[in-house]
Design goal:
Helices cover 70% and strands 4% of the residues. The protein is built from 6 helices and 2 strands. The longest helix has 25 residues, at 119-143.
């Protein structure tokens, strides 16, 4: 699926980005990345928090490019993740696939069962989310410097 398909199916909407929104989203990311380090939680919860940080980073990219998910349609996690290679480049396909797999695992540990996530998987996702934050900030500075948080 492409961005045009997402727009055609009303999964995405056009909306001008705003620096204050980007700043608030980065605050959520930073809170989540801090929480996965400082709070002793189950692997399931750590994974879910790290996933949320990575998801919000995909939202930042989406918003910076002038898109937002349609709140009246479902599947916004998948849309954000699957949009990533179209927004940041094809080199992000592999990471988007990884995040999509994490999306499925997070769904299980949030809504279906407990103790589904190994500690190593939670730690890996937390590290990947931290690296992704650095890359998103670098991308933002290059492509949308007016939206970089102060």
């Amino acid at each position: 699926m492409s961005l045009a398909n997402f727009l055609q199916k009303h999964l995405l909407q056009l909306q001008s980005p705003a620096k204050d929104e980007i700043e608030k989203l980065f605050q959520i990311v930073d809170r989540d990345l801090k929480d996965v380090k400082t709070v002793r939680l189950s692997s399931d919860r750590t994974f879910a928090i790290a996933y949320n940080a990575a998801l919000i980073l995909t939202m930042i990219v989406l918003r910076a490019k002038g898109y937002r998910t349609n709140p009246s349609m479902g599947g916004h996690h998948a849309v954000c993740i699957k949009s990533l290679p179209f927004l940041m480049g094809n080199e992000w396909k592999s990471f988007a696939r990884y995040l999509d797999a994490c999306r499925g695992k997070r769904h299980v540990c949030e809504y279906i069962s407990v103790d589904e996530v190994e500690a190593e998987d939670a730690e890996t996702l937390a590290k990947e989310a931290e690296k992704f934050r650095i890359e998103v900030l670098k991308w933002l500075k290059t492509h949308h410097p007016d939206l970089v948080p102060d």
